[in-house]
Design a protein that fits this description.
Number of strands of chain B: 2
CATH class of chain B: Mainly Alpha
Number of strands of chain A: 0
Order of helices and strands of chain B: HHEEHHHHHHHHHHH
Strand order of the largest sheet of chain B: 1-2
Number of helices of chain A: 15
Largest sheet of chain A: none
Oligomer: heterodimer
Number of helices of chain B: 13
CATH topology of chain B: MetI-like fold
CATH superfamily of chain B: MetI-like
Largest sheet of chain B: 2 strands, antiparallel
CATH topology of chain A: MetI-like fold
Number of domains of chain B: 1
Helix content of chain A: 55-70%
Structural class of chain A: mainly alpha
CATH architecture of chain A: Orthogonal Bundle
Radius of gyration of chain A: 25 Å
CATH class of chain A: Mainly Alpha
CATH superfamily of chain A: MetI-like
Chain lengths: ~290, ~325
């Protein structure tokens, strides 16, 4: 490891030259580790609480490792018919997966057309789409709620999923990617007599796998974590996704911190596992797309 | 399929005059455009219309056209809406002014610390970014439990250290500080990785040239790093202003907008929570839509202002 870093340093002179040992570097590591601890501690605290029996919450001393380790909070939560968190988990998974799949289809089709095809009104339509990127989402809250209600989709997963498909970010993102691809392969396909739909499906789309992966990660995370919109649309407890479910959980048991933290852990752990597995990829996705929300 | 193929070959004569209408591109954009129309373009108009009505979804027979009354209520002192709307809007602007500097400076410091060739920096980067993948509901619940005065983590350690232990969630200004701290914890990593990517894109030769000219590290930072980062900083500031404006789940779950104030409205009630309450608890959707349009205008002006200020400077 040491030799590798040394060669890198020699190859690419950096503003901060390295030496075998320096107090400066030790200090830097201490600082970085302190920040890392501040970031990790709340998550560990959540896990620790979720495995504690109720008797340990308010002890005068804090035990990071529960003195009596228990699955009680999870069991109570999973067996409580009025707070069906297992079902919420399934709902979240279903809503996020369907949202992601639909966004991939709709946005890659549109993005491809805006990148590669000429048609009347293209500039105007695309400009119009881009304008809405700058409009705050709050403006759409009431009218979209009324539209969903008018379509009879209140308390229905379609009502949670469909408004997301109006999003412009994915279209823009896919368009940028397709526009960056070289034309050669598609032209070769046309010469061989392929239609545009075939060219899109068999040439362009396979080449777009990295962009599709990025878009699906971002979409899935945003959908899994979405709080306000499902809170408005889903009414029956059995229908909830996890984030609005957590609010119901908090409202139902103001002092059941163990169960609350178990609920938070059940919501957080899948995305954290996903994050650990795909860490580098997720970070790069966010860096390239550079978009929150 | 045959017709599609024919249409395709027609359009391929690039530059040539096309007599037939080429519908294939429209097939590609149609699915998105349909949803865009229903859930973005139409709602924009619908929202404007609703904001001119007294509108209660539960009692449709009572809905009536009130013109600009919903807007006037927000700008006339003495109405029910006036104090609670402005309280929430001012709260939100205060939160934006408190959070945005922190959410730029702290991530920038983190990015600068990581923009070195330290062994293990990718691990640190991964840890710093991790909270961002959590739902705002998880973050709010976590904040609720950590800042609790009874059995909460923070006050336990403050007591241990012999320091003052505020009632974080139920007294001012501590309730704001808790929300602020939780938000910084949650989203700093996002801004950090954007800034880190930008830092890594600055050419090393610039720094070398500066060093040769005898610039010290502060001068290198001031005259190379900051100017080179300017476009990214503009982006970060604008997106952070918008997301701070959208503050919702943390106060809803941690303080529920409280502690209550004598003048009406909660001390930590953000405008999003007020719009939500107005539309879905008080069931006054016309008024809520009017509020959201006023707030949206403020947000657009804020972004535009930021854009101008940070762009035109040099």
């Amino acid at each position: 490891m040491a030799t590798r870093t040394k060669t890198i340093t020699e190859d690419m002179p950096q503003p901060n030259q390295k030496r075998p040992f320096s107090w400066q570097r030790l200090f830097l590591y201490l600082l970085l580790t302190l920040i890392a601890l501040l970031i990790i501690v709340p998550m560990l605290w959540m896990l620790s609480t979720s495995f504690k029996p109720k008797s340990e919450f308010f002890l005068p001393d804090i035990y990071w490792i529960p003195r009596t380790f228990t699955w009680d909070n999870y069991q109570k939560l999973l067996n409580n018919p009025s707070l069906p968190i297992g079902r919420w988990f399934f709902n979240s998974l279903m809503v996020s997966s369907v949202t992601t799949l639909l966004i991939l289809i709709v946005d890659s089709l549109a993005g491809y057309a805006y990148a590669r095809m000429e048609f009347r009104g293209k500039k105007i339509i695309f400009g119009f789409l881009l304008m809405t990127l700058f409009l705050p989402g709050v403006m759409f809250l009431i009218p979209n709620f009324l539209t969903i209600s008018g379509l009879g989709l209140l308390n229905n997963y379609a009502g949670v999923i469909l408004p997301g498909l109006a999003g412009v970010f994915g279209v823009f993102f896919m368009r940028q990617f397709f526009a960056s691809l070289p034309h050669d392969l598609e032209e070769a396909a046309y010469i061989d007599g392929a239609t545009r739909i075939q060219t899109f499906l068999y040439i362009a789309l396979p080449l777009a796998k990295p962009a599709l992966a990025t878009l699906s990660i971002i979409t899935f995370l945003a959908s899994w974590n979405d709080f306000l919109w499902p809170l408005l649309i889903l009414k029956d407890r059995i229908m909830l996704t996890l984030p609005p479910g957590l609010r119901t959980l908090q409202g139902a048991y103001t002092s059941e911190y163990g169960q609350m933290m178990a609920g938070a852990a059940i919501t957080a752990i899948p995305v954290l596992i996903l994050y650990v597995l795909l860490q580098r990829y997720i970070v790069e996705s966010v860096q390239t797309s550079g978009l929150k929300e | 399929m045959a017709t599609i193929a024919r249409a395709t070959s027609a359009s391929r004569r690039e530059g040539g005059q096309r007599k037939r209408f080429d519908f294939v591109p429209y097939l590609f954009i149609l699915p998105h455009l349909v949803f865009f129309g229903i859930f973005a373009a139409f709602p924009f108009l619908l929202g404007l219309v609703i904001s001119l009505f007294e509108y209660d979804i539960l009692r449709p027979e009572a809905n009536r056209f009130v013109g600009t009354q919903n807007y006037l209520n927000l700008f006339t002192s003495g109405t029910v809406e006036f104090p609670i709307f402005w309280n929430a809007l001012i709260n939100t602007i205060e939160f934006v002014l408190m959070s945005v500097p922190l959410l730029v400076v702290i991530p920038l410091a983190m990015a600068l610390l990581l923009n070195t060739n330290l062994t293990g920096k990718n691990l640190y980067r991964a840890i710093y970014f991790a909270p961002w993948v959590l739902s705002s509901a998880v973050v709010g619940l976590l904040g609720f439990w950590i800042f609790q005065s009874q059995g909460g983590l923070l006050n336990y350690y403050l007591k241990d250290l012999g320091l003052f232990q505020p009632r974080w969630l139920s007294s001012m200004p501590w309730a704001w500080y808790s929300i602020l701290l939780v938000t910084v914890w949650w989203t700093s990593g996002f801004n950090m990785i954007i800034l880190l990517a930008a830092l890594q894109g600055i050419s090393a030769s610039l720094y070398e040239a500066a060093s040769i000219d005898g610039a010290n590290s502060w001068q290198r930072f001031r005259y190379i790093t900051i100017p080179q980062l300017r476009p990214v900083l503009v982006f970060i500031i604008i997106t952070t202003v918008i997301s701070s404006f959208n503050l919702f789940a943390q106060p809803m779950l941690m303080t529920n907008g409280g502690p209550a104030q004598s003048g009406g409205g909660g001390s930590t009630e953000p405008i999003m929570l007020r719009i939500y309450t107005e539309g879905f608890v008080r069931n006054r959707m016309g008024s809520s839509a009017a509020m959201s349009f006023v707030v949206a205008s403020v947000m657009v002006m804020f972004s535009y202002f930021n854009f101008r200020v940070f762009r035109t400077k040099e």
